[in-house]
Amino acid sequence: MAPRPEDSTMPGSKVIAAATLESPSSSVNLWSRTAAAGSSTAPNAIDPITESMESATIVDLQEELKKQVADLKKELAQCRKRENAILAVFATNYNKEKDLAQREISLLAKEMELKKLAEWEKRENAILAVFAVNHQKESELTQRESELTQRDSELTQRDNEITQRDNSPTQRDNELIQRDSELTQRERAVEEIEDEQETENERLEWEGAWIHQLVMSRKNITAVPKQAHLRKMTAQRLLHMGRALENFQVNPDLRIDTSSLPDIDMDDLAVKLLRVHDCYRGWLDCNRAIDHEMALHEGRITEEEVAYLTDYHDYRNPFNAGSMAGINFTWSALCHSHDKPE
User: Interior CA angle at 139 toward 133 and 141, to 5°?
Assistant: First the structure.
């Protein structure tokens, strides 16, 4: 592209450039506008060199405008391509999200159906279990009723036979006696059957009450038994032995309160020593650990409440307490047997 002349000595150059920028078709009246613009600032005669330079400038400006228009068209085409690509990506993402949403909705619907089916299966199994129990009871009762009916029919048949054999008075008396005895036996049998029936009814009522209690216990409605509650409270009280251990506490100045210690006769000697304090303290710790282990095994307390049972850095640990008691007692016994001070 040729350099654009912008010398201020050229008359009408700025007017020509402005006219060219407005529209390429305005080049027809270019010279008339130039003449009109230069009539006020220059003589009527136009310099040939100036005219040639202005025409060259106009051509360069037209070419530059054409190139700019072409570049703008290219950029516009690229922008449209990008816009189409972005729209295509948006459409693809929208379709994907739509498919995912539909798939999620279908999965949720299937999940709800599966949950409903599982609940229906549970209800069906429970109903079938109840039906099975009722059917078994009904079959047992039907069998028992058929046995009673058969026995009643046999007794009725025997009564008919006895009635038909009543021919002579002696024979009839014998038959009446026999009949009375049979009736007595029959009444006894009926009473036994009624007793058995009452026992069976009581058993069924007890089973029903037991089943009801079992169902209520599964619903967590039953209360905690009083005995278990008392055992739990006892186990909790074992965690705080109170004054029983405070009697053997060491004061901050490493002295013990001898007035709270028991007097123990050992070979007619009253022992009030720190070793005795340690022995009793270890013995109490051992007993407490045994009680807590039993309570933990029976489920009356939790592991968090008796964490010291497995903590070997705690002096209340059974191993540490037993070791302390055994070592101190052995040391005291050895010193006493050799008549040496501790």
Answer: 105
- Of 35, 16, 12, 32, the closest CA to residue 24 belongs to 16
pLDDT of residue 205: 59
Cα dist. 289→140, 158, 200, 292, 307 in Å?
55, 77, 51, 5, 11
Predicted pLDDT of residue 25: 44
Interatomic CA distance for residues 79 and 67, integer angstroms: 18
Q: Which residues pair with 221 in a beta bridge?
A: none
Residue with tokens 């912008």: 6
State the Cα–Cα distance between residues 195 and 162, nearest whole angstrom. 28
Give one DSSP letter per residue of 144-194, joined into a string.
HHHHHHHHHHHHHHHHHHHHHT--SHHHHHHHHHHHHHHHHHHHHHHHHHH
At residue 256, φ and ψ (nearest 5 deg) are: -115, 150
- For the entire predicted model, the pTM comes to 0.22
Through-space distance between the first and last CA atoms of the chain, rounded to whole angstroms? 118
For residue 265, the cross-strand partners are 270
The token duo for 132 is 């099975």
Q: At residue 6, what is the residue type? A: E
Q: Helices (H) and strands (E) in the chain — how many of each?
A: 8, 2
Q: Where are the beta strands (DSSP E) in 212-265?
A: 264-265
Q: What is the mean pLDDT of the chain?
A: 69
pLDDT of 86 above 90: yes
The radius of gyration computed from the CA coordinates of the chain, to the nearest angstrom, equals 59
Which one, of 49, 74, 59, lies nearest residue 17 by Cα?
A: 59
Of the given ranges (155-164, 188-197, 202-211), which has the lowest mean pLDDT?
202-211
Task: Take residue 166 and report the two structure tokens written for it.
Answer: 């009543």
Q: Where are the domains of the chain?
A: 13-109, 113-218, 226-337
Q: d(Cα 75, Cα 80) in Å, to the nearest integer? A: 8
